[in-house]
Specification:
It comes from Gordonia defluvii. Belongs to the adenylyl cyclase class-3 family. InterPro entries: A/G_cyclase (IPR001054), Adenylyl/Guanylyl_Cyclase_3/4 (IPR050697), HAMP_dom (IPR003660), Nucleotide_cyclase (IPR029787). By secondary structure, this protein is of the alpha+beta class. Helix content is about 65%, strand content about 15%. β4 and β5 form a beta hairpin.
Length: about 525
């Protein structure tokens, strides 16, 4: 089932649509990944500098003997780590997604490498920040051992923020790739589940800052030179950093939830509006992906139901199908007053003898098309196609206020349309009227809706007489008398005739040409 492409196929306009070219996808992924890595590290570096200088001012890192660490080692490591993180992280991720960039169908190995890509990216950022934690803690601790807990806390906290942001951004950016893998049948992955995302956001946004505030209290108790103002400043700075990082991580976490939910919501709105040609792109490997798959499965079931309903209606008539779906169909029927119309082709044997079977069927289909259009225009039911003959019913199963008038008007419309639309065919048309039994006939395993009674036989016999002059449909006088005066005015009474199989004469009426 093709998916209708939109600008939010993957939950955000930043990720484009599912029908973008592979070149555009590659440029977008590389650009977003590089931006994400740089942004996460800049936030982490800013948090580290702010915490080390203002958030936890005591003991101070601005000691004379630490100038070479502050202004040589730290900047050099930051530049080196940022360069390695951006270049190696972007290139390794794009290399793992080479199949997607080329537009190839992924193999099992491709799926493994692609799903490991965001974790490798996060592992690289974690490794670089772990290296910074060890290096800076040792360098600052050699000069002043009292700086060890402070540097350890500051760098570890900042690194944790970077890793959390990078992991959420990587999963967001690689949604198109995950969608391709899920579409290819690779259902399992190492993506974070909803609970994991929530715990990660809480840990960095609340857990780590709370630990920092507790350590500030410990520092205030240990170091006599830490003033009250320093404690207040530390708590304010850590709280401010926590507010910012917590809000950012919460937004990233909720974005991963809102996108799939919004896609399903929009799809449901279209389904409620009557559309069933709706599918959403499945791009999330968590429980939300299961929700997207469930929605697509539900809509596929609706499409199949509509297809079956359409086929059912084409076979038995839309009114019969609707009645069967409203109530459990049962064998048997009820007596109703109906009008019946029988149309029989004139010279069908000659037609089959002079044309190929394919041409014969095509001609008959055009003939039946005229009949179906006219019958449905007057709210009747085409009940049977019997070879080259048709039985139509008016007044059952759909009640009509004037079934006789509807049948007579339909007969005249067909007689006028056939010479124009299907000039190679002519037909005798007969209309009967009276009480008949309408209902389901057959066995419980296989039955059909039909009408049984004298009006059916009467219309069939009248159609035989009407073959004398196909321009003039015939009807019983009872049918004309039951019709509305406007329609009855179009019919002329002829002689009474004993129809085949009957003993009582029937007064016959013909349409006025």
């Amino acid at each position: 089932m093709p998916i209708v492409s939109t600008a939010r196929d993957y939950g955000s306009v930043l990720l484009g649509s599912s029908d973008d070219s592979q070149l555009r996808k590659r440029i977008r992924i590389q650009t977003l990944l590089t931006t994400a890595i740089v942004t996460a590290n800049v936030i982490g570096i800013g948090a580290a500098v702010l915490l080390a200088t203002v958030g936890i001012p005591v003991p101070s890192v601005f000691q004379p003997e630490l100038w070479w660490v502050n202004f040589v080692v730290v900047p050099a490591y930051v530049v080196l780590a940022l360069t390695v993180g951006v270049v190696w992280g972007t290139l390794s991720t794009v290399r793992a997604l080479r199949w997607a960039i080329r537009g190839d169908t992924p193999t099992g190995q491709d799926a493994k490498r692609a799903r490991r890509a965001p974790w490798r990216l996060v592992a690289l950022q974690s490794l670089l920040w772990q290296g910074a934690t060890v290096l800076f803690t040792v360098l600052y601790g050699v000069a002043d051992p009292q700086l060890i807990p402070k540097i350890l806390l500051v760098v570890a906290f900042s690194g944790t923020v970077v890793v959390a942001i990078a992991s959420l951004l990587a999963e967001f950016i690689l949604r198109p790739t995950e969608a391709d893998l899920l579409a290819a049948g690779f259902r399992t992955g190492r993506r974070m589940r909803l609970r994991g995302r929530a715990i990660a956001a809480w840990s960095v946004g609340s857990g780590v800052p709370i630990v920092g505030m507790l350590l500030v209290a410990v520092f205030a108790a240990i170091f006599d030179n830490m003033r009250k103002q320093d404690v207040v400043a530390s708590v304010l700075v850590i709280g401010g950093v926590a507010l910012f990082t917590g809000l950012l991580l919460t937004l990233l976490s909720t974005t991963s939830v809102v996108g799939p939910v919004r896609a399903v919501r929009d799809g449901m709105r279209r389904v409620r509006a009557g559309e069933t040609d709706v599918d959403v792109v499945v791009y999330d490997g968590s429980e939300l992906g299961d929700l997207q798959i469930g929605f697509n499965t539900m809509v596929a079931g609706l499409r199949e139901r509509e297809r079956i309903r359409d086929l059912f209606g084409r076979h038995v008539g839309q009114d019969v199908a609707a009645a069967a779906m409203r109530n459990d169909p049962e064998l048997g029927g009820s007596e109703q007053v109906v009008a019946t119309m029988f149309i029989d082709v004139i010279g069908s044997t000659a037609l089959a003898a002079t044309r190929t079977p394919t041409e014969t069927v095509a001609t008959l289909n055009r003939f039946f098309g005229v009949i179906v259009d006219a019958v449905e225009a007057n709210r009747g039911l085409v009940n049977k196609f019997e070879g080259d003959a048709v039985l139509a019913i008016f007044g059952a199963p759909l009640h009509l206020p004037d079934p006789a008038g509807a049948a007579l008007a339909t007969a005249r419309a067909i007689a006028a349309a056939l010479p124009v639309t299907v000039p190679e065919l002519a037909a005798g048309i007969g209309v009967g009227y009276g009480a008949a039994v309408a209902g389901n006939v057959g066995a419980i395993e296989r039955f059909e809706f039909t009408v049984i009674g004298d009006p059916v036989n009467e219309s069939a016999r009248l159609s035989e007489l009407a073959k004398r002059d196909s321009r003039r449909p015939l009807a019983s006088q009872v049918a004309v008398a039951a019709a509305n005066p406007r329609e009855a005015a179009h019919w002329q009474t002829l002689d009474a005739e004993v129809l085949r199989g009957r003993s009582v004469p029937t007064v016959v009426c013909a349409a006025v040409v």
